[in-house]
Amino acid sequence: MDHQPISWRRVGAFMLIATVLANLFRFDLLGHKAMLTALPGWLAVLLSVIAEGAGILLAALIARHFLGKVRPVPLQLLGNLPWIPLTMSAIALLLLSVVGVNNSYGMDPHGYGLVAAAGTLLYCIMEEYGWRGYLQTELAPLANGLKYGVVGFCWYLWHLTFLTSASLGDNLFFLGMMILGSWGIGQVAEATKSILTCACFHLIIQVMMFNALIRNGISLQEKIIILSIAAVSYFWLVKKWERHQAALDKAQCENDLTATN
After folding, report:
1. What does the pLDDT look like over 220-244, one tens digit per residue?
2. Which of 3, 167, 142 is nearest to 70 (CA)?
3. pLDDT > 60? residue 2
4. 3-class SS at 73?
5. pTM for this model (two decimals)
6. Residue 130 predicted with pLDDT over 90
7. Share of the chain above pLDDT 70, in %
8. Helix (H, G, I), strand (E, B) or coil at 194
9. C-alpha–C-alpha distance, residues 125 and 245, integer Å
10. How far apart are CA 82 and CA 240, in angstroms?
11. φ/ψ (deg, to 5) at 239
12. Beta-carbon contacts of residue 210 (< 8 Å; ≥ 6 apart)
């Protein structure tokens, strides 16, 4: 366990920057949606989604910079086995482009599926730099249950769902999903140290929920097919990564023993 102290000042600054910047675009406080009307509809939605993610990315990069002066920040984009997160990304892009996503923009469903998958993956990378790449690392001194609970609660707060017309039940359900997601993706982060791997799992959650680029563009049956193929292949790849890491750790131990003898 990391015994370096948590900087709640850093956490507060991260949450403030991430929440303000992301929700400026989520709630259209700058009137940007009117400015995007000249663009094709799908492109306007894509840019709006990326703008939301840019806020948390900026907050994470600032917080990670200052955290890195105190202790290591282990999560990087690709981790130590780049081919695995890149393969997972290719699987996600392929699944959505083959299945296709119906849309109201007149685009071919398969071409739009590729655009929606790529845009959603980019958005998920931005978010994962915040929740796993920074906040989970900052909270490393906490016990796992508390750590994932705090990350999930912050993730929920960031969405400001309680300021919308959502009911109390909807808010409690969403909070539970955020905590559960923080536990699941958090385990992936611990195992792989890769932000892109976390983003691939995050993307599948986005597909199953109400992603702005997909919404009702695919049926429940198609979602289940995507989830099944992605889950099986992703967990197999993560287990392969864990075996590789275990072999590296064993070899390192043997080298250390040899060096001391």
Report:
1. 999 999 999 999 999 999 999 989 8
2. 3
3. no
4. coil
5. 0.91
6. yes
7. 98
8. strand
9. 23
10. 13
11. -65, -40
12. none
